[in-house]
Amino acid sequence: QLFLEKYGYFSEPGAGTHSPAEFTEALRDFQRVTHLPLSGVLDAPTLHQMALPRCGTDDGDSRAAGARRAPPARRRRRTAQHGGRWYKRHLTYRVVNWPSYLPQHEVRLAVRAAFELWSNVSSLRFWEAQHGPADIRLTFFHGDHNDGLNNAFDGPGGALAHAFFPRRGEAHFDSAERWSLHSGKGRNLFIVVAHEVGHTLGLQHSPVKSALMSPYYKKLSKDFVLSWDDILAIQNLYGKPSKGSAIQLPGKVFTHFQDWNTDFYSRDRQQRSLSTYYCHSFFDAITADGDHNLYIFKGSHYWVVSASGNASDPRPLQPRWPGLPAGIDACAWSQLSGKFYFFKGGRCWRYAGSKLEAGFPRKCSALGLPRHPDTALYFQQLRRLVLFKGPKYFVVGEEPLGVEPYYPRSLRDWAGLPPATAGALTHRDGSVYFFRDDQYWKFDQAKLQVVATGKWATQLAWMGCWDANSEQGLF
Ligand SMILES: [Zn+2]
Ligand SMILES: [Zn+2]
């Protein structure tokens, strides 16, 4: 009875006051929603279903949708209670805390991919706020955490997480679960975040078994993460993606990340769209060398785009840069020394050709360089490297490696530049281009200000995305 109460199967809440008839009716409702035989009694399949790990948000409306006999008054009450949506399209989110055994960078990547699922198929756009206020906050809690006894977490299994409908912007996760970023053991954080984010956007539980918004936990599989039921639901609230073209592979983004290393090359059918996969998604870092070749980094691979705009197939970071880890934060090629610099976490790598220089990787944070820099750039005017991190930038000398005096300084020196860019390069037209998500900012070195902005995949031919193909929506 407590279970049915918690998940919204009684029309009048209040523990211990339900007649046997109400109890039977509530059980039948639950069995209808979960596609079980409508026995109306607590039989073995029903008890088994109740014990499965699931979302702690109640089934109120999906239940009303399934129960055609539900009186209209009750359905309206449910809808009024839950409904709601955001009245803006650009939302910020913040991961307030996370399990200490998961690396921060990977958690942020998984959360970003989860939000990307929804922005790929709707007009919504999301930005991560690493500090301060945000529209949607993701928080891990133990047990009772002050939003009602009904919402107290129950340890491993049972309710894994819950979230609130707009515009409260809160999703809570049970700290007692064993969270994981991979398929296999543990609860996959990406899947659960993607589901709870759906609630924070206004989606209710779906009675469609294959839907991400179905209340029961699903393992990460190679199938699409979003079903058409999820896509229609989000488009009902927020409309289609503004770029007009429907994206063909909703939900594949994260699976790509996963399969990247193992069976990537065996997948002929996907090869073509993957060869320019960077055109359709975020990348980790970008730079250009002295011959104006672009290097675009994502995960454990990189692409080279020649000066004529032809993109290579993705190549593994090894053996081009032996010892370089996947998922770098930033990269810059120095025109002064002709060397590649890579940054990840508090460390940095320097290569002359394919040779890692002696003494590297170094603990660059000990030299005053920022940890997890957003962007690295060789800046010709100063003949120095520049590292960008949040609202600040650092000017860095190469020999000896270290931050120049009087830095960091405020990003305001770079008029018009937003924080948290993914990468930057000096183009052969003499301008510096900064990238973040699907946007670019063109920075004039003489005027020291941003002079143009737009979408890089569709507006900058030299990014190599123009003949990427028309099967997938470009970023
Ligand atoms: Zn849910
Ligand atoms: Zn909570």
TrEMBL record:
UniProt binding sites for Ca(2+) 1: 177
GO molecular function, one term: zinc ion binding
Cofactor annotation remark: Binds 2 Zn(2+) ions per subunit. Can bind about 5 Ca(2+) ions per subunit.
Placement of Hemopexin repeats on the sequence: 280-324, 325-371, 418-465
CDD domains hit by this protein: HX, ZnMc_MMP
Residues bound to Ca(2+) 4: 284, 329
Presence of the UniProt keyword Zinc in the record: yes
Gene Ontology terms: cellular component: extracellular matrix; extracellular space
Residues holding Ca(2+) 2: 135
Cofactor list: Zn(2+); Ca(2+)
Extent of Basic residues compositional bias: 71-83
Domain of life: Eukaryota
Keywords on record: Calcium, Hydrolase, Metal-binding, Metalloprotease, Protease, Repeat, Zinc, Zymogen
Disordered: region residues: 54-83
SUPFAM superfamilies attached to this UniProt entry: Hemopexin-like domain (SSF50923), Metalloproteases ('zincins'), catalytic domain (SSF55486), PGBD-like (SSF47090)
Residues that, per the record, bind Ca(2+) 3: 154-155, 174, 177
Pfam families linked to this entry: Hemopexin, Peptidase_M10
Active site: 196
Ranges of residues in domain Peptidase metallopeptidase: 82-240
Binding of Ca(2+) 5, residues: 286, 376
Residues at which Zn(2+) 1 binds: 145, 147, 162, 172
Record bears the keyword Membrane: no
Family to which the UniProt record says this protein belongs: Belongs to the peptidase M10A family.
Protein name per Swiss-Prot or TrEMBL: MMP28 protein
Protein source organism: Vidua macroura
